[in-house]
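Input/output pair, single chain:
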Amino acid sequence: MHSRDETANPVPHPQAGNHAEQSSIAALVFGAIGVVFGDIGTSPLYTMKETFAGPHPLELDRLHVMGVLSLIFWAVTIIVSVKYVIIIMRADNRGEGGSLALLALLNRATHGRPGLAALVGMLGVFAAALFYGDSMITPAISVLSAVEGLEVAAPRLHPAVVPLTLAILIALFMIQSHGTARIGVFFGPVMTIWFATLAGLGVLNITQAPEVLWALSPHHAVVFMIEDGKIAFLALGAVVLAVTGAEALYTDMGHFGRLPIRLAWYLLVLPALMLNYFGQGALLLTHPDAIENPFFHLAPGWAGVPMVLLATTASVIASQAVISGAFSVTRQAMYLGYLPRMGIVHTSEREIGQIYIPVLNWTLAIFVIALVVGFQTSTNLASAYGVAVTGTMVIDAVLIALVMHLLWQWPARLTVPVISFFLIVDLAFFLANSTKILHGGWFPLTIGLVIFLLLTTWNRGRTLLKVGFERNAIPEEEFFRKVSEEVVRVPGTAIFLANVTGGVPLSLLNNLKHNHILHERVILLSVIIEEVPYVSYDRRIEGFDLGCNCHRLNLHYGYMQSPNIPKTLSDARYDQLGFVYEPKTVSYFLSRKTVIPSPKPGMPIWREKLFAWMFRSSTNPLEFFCLPFDRVVELGGQVEI
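Output:
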């Protein structure tokens, strides 16, 4: 039996590493088109409409059309093509992306700098919290705006828009428990058809007013901003809808790899989006009356219903990607210590990323349905959209600046101007969207703040529990040396789930107190979730011999892996464990702790009560670690914080 070096570099899971070895680049590009770009790919459904007919409508003339098109093109270029695709996607945590992956990456870089580490932690967690607000609005606005195409194709069906939207969304949340493996194979083809249709409709309308292509010049955006000042600034609140979904490119990087996402963006998605936006601009110049819904007016009259069906399908796919992203972010937050344990169901035997979290699924469903019923139209929802997105963009700019400085060690003469430019752009969009707060923007912010409170309360409470355990812990070697001479040993193996920091677990003390025996072989087992996405098999088990036929085992997992204790032990070798693992002779002992809030220094009493409620609501370790029901013994105890 031997221990392994904790600092050894784990090998990433195949899905997070060399994707080219798993599948061809073309297949990964195709897959990325179906999953990654749904949110930003459905933005043409509402962006131009909200810019000219939203809460701050613009006069429909050449100056404003050209100015808005120029703003959209350069916003997408700066924020998506340069900031996210070129720069931020370089900051991967062993192949994985997203706010929490970036947080884990910077946590290691800020080790020994408590002030900076605290700032990074707050920013990263708040960015993750804002994502939940977006994950509620995206399905609502995407599907609602697609179904609203019926008002163009068949105006008499206007009363059916909201009920039909609700039916589609309810069906979408109901199928989550079955996974998307079967229907997922259609995502790539459908979204490819969608982007090809966007491009085709755009080209068809650009030919009617080709002068709109001059809007590629940034001077049209500058003239618009100078001429209209305040109104142009407020228009940024609608223009930003064109870049919603940029974060998904970074978040989903681990599923497809950096190169396939970049290729899909530059070769198909970006050209299709720009052609469609410019096509809508050309349509508005030649047919101003199309402003009620410029996207659906791009198509000939006979194509109205097919376009509604295609747009609705694309919106459902975009919503599915956001829901799956919420599951993934929640799993990361659980394993990194920011959320209590929740039941996770794996819906695919082959795809590790295919998971379903029942509590989160139905919580999202309730809020999405409430949004559709409460706001009624995509225009009203657009007023709530963008605040959280731009807030996340600002946070990402700050975090990537720290990555440039601490990890990449770029010189200040390069980092400062680059980040300053991005921050100016991001802050301009954020301030423009701040006017939406009273008109619905409060919703994602409120959701974000509530989630942030829950994440930080759980993390802080776990820290207080850890400190309490360490303070009262009995050293393991001393304990076993003393009791093994006095206590009766009975046949079998007892595995006690223990704290990572060491010490005798409460379940072992209670078992000894009430039953007055020790098993022939005693194992103190801890599960350690590392701040890397995947831990390779050869680093999974770390073992120590405590003497007296007692052992300590530490099982290491990445935050994208699901801990399965029996399977890990069954797959392990004798030299890793130091004993022969026989499932039929093993009993697992769990500590059923009850958290008691107290006036001790730590957290305000109301946060301690909140933590105690979260602790009670967390999933039993029996389910979370896949322990066999008939071989588990639970022993209770109380812990003050």
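Confidence is low (pLDDT under 50) at residues 1-22. The chain has 29 helices and eight strands.
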